[in-house]
Amino acid sequence: MMTILRDSPCRFLIKLQEWFLVKEEKSPYGTTIKSIVMVIEHPGLCRTLAEFLKEHPHLERRDARTLIQQIVKAAQACTRKEICHFDIHYHNILVISPPLHIKLIDFGCGLHISHDPENYPQRDTVISPERAEKRTVNQLVTIVQDIARHCSSIPTDFMGFMAACWSPLNTTGEIQHSMKILNQPWLRD
Question: Domain of 157: which CATH number?
Fold first, then answer.
């Protein structure tokens, strides 16, 4: 995961500049515990999405759209690199403004997406593509709902689509992919 974060061309992911293994020791359970120090990019003056939304209780439609687009693109960049962030929420998204720009941070809960079912028992490090996409889309829906509470002009059909992505009433078993979110007319560039 360290190499992926260091080499990622996505401007919406925090960049890892360097990392160092500080110590390695055995836990009481016989597993190896590695302590590392990570040096990440300094994105400049920023705040978490939670702080940004508190400061901007009434977002303009274009700002809400920009935030949602960038957050979905950050999640997609992780998936393309076979990483499930697993902890996308408004405290793990930095907002830099002006101009309005986000950085997804804190990959501590991240899991490697594996297409090999033999790896799935390693639940602490590996996740299937289906579970990863479901988890990611559910987290994106929650973020969009948080942003929508601050912008009353987000189109109803877009919010209906987002609600259907997450709905436990979706009995078809179809997993909505993050690309389908970006393909919604309101979010298309």
Answer: 1.10.510.10
